[in-house]
Amino acid sequence: MHCADGPAVRYADGWDVYAWHGTQVPSWVITGPDVHRIAQEANVEVRRCAIERIGWASYIEQAGLRLIAAAPDPGNPGSELRLYDMRKETKVLLAVNGSVERDGHRRRYGLTVPGFLNDPLDAAGWTYGLSAEQYSLLVRRT
Fold first, then answer.
1. Cys bridge to 123: 4, 82, 86, 117, which one at CB 3.0-4.6 A?
2. Tell me, what's the pLDDT at 83?
3. What's this model's pTM, rounded to 2 decimal places?
4. Residue 34: CB partners within 8 Å, gap ≥ 6?
5. Contact criterion met (CB below 8 Å) for 92 and 83
């Protein structure tokens, strides 16, 4: 189920179901996502959907995230890893999915990583339990 501008399902009794690319979400994700609601949301999938709904570029700008560093992604040729400062103890690594989605595009996504990481390769490696050096040797990431 998916609908970008309203409920994905509306029943005759007035009950609605909102969904973003197969994930059931609260109505605000579709009708009015904003950085304050995203920051308060406990469910990581709902946060992801809300960020995708407004777009990563808009989210980064509206949330005031500061770019720490960027680097080519060795596990995903042609793509870039971008590391943003989020909070003192947390950073966000913005990456591009190594696998093509069913519709042919590659999804951008953000991964939270510990605040002590300052290099995008270190951060990407950390998400796999690898060092930056080990990650940089990957031929292809999925």
1. 117
2. 97
3. 0.81
4. 54, 62
5. yes
Tokens describing residue 132: 């930056």
Question: 72 is written with which tokens?
Answer: 């080519």
Please list, in sequence order, all residues whose beta carbon lies within 8 angstroms of the beta carbon of residue 126, skipping any fewer than 6 positions away. 113, 114, 117
- pLDDT, average across residues 32-39: 94
Cβ(1)–Cβ(18) below 8 Å: no
DSSP label of 14: S
Sheet with 66-72, strands from edge to edge, namely 66-72, 80-87, 90-96, 108-114
Stated as kind and residue range, the H or E segment containing 25 is: strand 23-25
Half-sphere exposure of 51 (CA within 13 A, CB side): 23
Does residue 87 have a pLDDT over 70?
yes
Distances (CA, A) of 10 to 3, 38, 125: 11, 25, 43
